[in-house]
Amino acid sequence: MSIINRQTIAAFLLGSALVAGAGAFAVERHMGGQGAGMASAEHMERMTAHLYRAVDASAAQKAAIEPLVTAAMADLKPMHEQMSQIHRQVTSLLAAPSIDRAALESTRASGIALADRASQRLVRLMADVGDSLTPAQRQKLADHLGKMGERRHHRG
Asked: What's the whole-model pTM score?
């Protein structure tokens, strides 16, 4: 695998990891209660700290990346809420006395469009974060995330 492909994969995985944290943060409103929000914020902090350690990020890099992640979380949070609404809509449509195929298809298309917008935002985050890292750091991240992926796949 070439270095460019590894860096692309690393950026994607970093963005995915950050988004997972953003999703955890978004759970605060979904789950309600102050404790859930605290757990989500703490989870996000632990996850970003782990990623910073994996690439030996400098204080300046952390300061540059943190607002990028915060902005992405703010952008993705409403999308998470919209996806929850789409899920509820599909569930309601499937529970109806008769199946409305047109409504299901329309809801599916809305979900795909929303997922595409979220994916575009994630790619922007990945590129922005990648701009803050050196090529050597991106390589470290690719190696680290590759090992994590291998462990995950070998669990069964």
From this structure: 0.66
